[in-house]
Amino acid sequence: MSPVNSPAIWLGPLAVIAVSNMCAVVLCAWPVPASVLKNIAMQRAAEGNHPLAPTGHETQWAESEGWLDGLNDTGRRQAIKALRAFESWLREKPDSFQSRLMALNSREREDLITRTRQREQEGPLSGLIHPSIASEPWFDEAREFLSIKLLPRLDESELMELEKAASGERKNWLTCFARLAHDHIHLPQGPTSVTGIKDLPSPWKSAFEKLDPTSRKRLEALEGRWPDFAISLYSSVIEARQSVPQETLGPCRWEEMPGPWIAALQPKGFPGLANMERNRLQPHEGQWPAYPRQVLESLRRRAVSLPAIRLPGPTLVWRQAFDSR
Question: Do the domain assignments include residue 303?
Fold first, then answer.
């Protein structure tokens, strides 16, 4: 098998990197000199083994050591330098990022590392805005909205979702951007909204205490902010593969929705429309954040523009994106 034609291995400047206390070998997008790549590739072709074959961690680590041993002194130093640079870079990332990285296959892992480093080098908005928006008169408004209001609230999986949408069809990016903005910035707040650790129901407090220190510290910094704290806690618990408590963190029933939202869902003179909306939302009742997100979806679908959820640019742009889905 030619190393160049092996999609899981040789897709440009790759290096064999050992992470997670040297118990797993991963292939990732990390720049190394072409001469090192050539030497590693030639040896791998001769051996004919696949580094991600279903072998034990010890075997994989031994194979990676064998690859390094097969390099000349210069190549070995360059490969080890790349390994150490990657290890240092990874250790600075949150535990959640490291866990997600290790759960990916080699292609997905390479993509995530490449995108993350690109954002670090080119700026935090790199790859997050659809190219067609650059020619819009509201481009600067979109950049400001994303940079100040939305970006600080997105987790890694949501960043990946927005990046993927930005590389596809324009309408998909618009709908993805709108959904993330509404989910994070303007979920309806009410008496049942939780904005701090001391307000958490007992099951949620237990779930919080089981999170890793980095996640707990991040949540503590979000206390007092709605819906940032609640959404981040909800996402962190799911990411940690804990069971999501049944207790809710915010309004999730028709009667708990703010007055302007209900008024928008039941326009005067159309009582039947309100009943239809309520019946459609009924399966999600008592579920947070599913219920308020469905309410927001209804408002978006009907192009209802509440002051609290105004997106950058003309309303018509967003309406057309949802109408064309």
Answer: no
Residue 147 lies in a domain: no
Residues 162 and 139 sit within 8 Å (Cβ to Cβ): no
**Residues 297-303: contacts with CB under 8 Å, at least 24 apart:** 297/179, 298/265, 299/261, 299/264, 299/265, 300/178, 300/179, 300/182, 302/264
What secondary structure letter does DSSP report for 93? S
Q: Count other C-beta atoms under 10 Å from residue 252's C-beta.
A: 25
Q: In sequence order, what are the beta bridge partners of 28? A: 15
Distant-in-sequence, close-in-space partners of 38: CB < 8 Å, separation ≥ 6: none
Whole-model pTM: value is: 0.48
Q: Which range of residues forms the domain containing residue 33?
A: 3-113
Structural domain count of the chain: 1
Q: Kindly give the residue spans of alpha helices, DSSP state H, lying in 72-150.
A: 73-91, 95-103, 106-122, 139-144
Coil/strand/helix, residue 34: helix
Comparing C-alpha atoms, which of 186, 179, 170 is closest to residue 133? 170
Q: Give the tens place of pLDDT for each residue, 90-135.
A: 777 777 677 777 777 767 777 778 778 877 777 778 889 999 999 9
In whole angstroms, what is the distance from residue 229 CA to residue 217 CA?
12
Output the furthest CA–CA distance in the chain (Å, rounded): 81
- Classify residue 107: in a domain, yes or no: yes
Q: What span, in angstroms and rounded, lies between the C-alpha atoms of 91 and 19?
A: 10
Q: Do 166 and 128 contact (CB within 8 A), yes or no?
A: yes
Tens of pLDDT, residue by residue over 79-97, are 677 777 777 777 777 776 7
38 located within any domain? yes
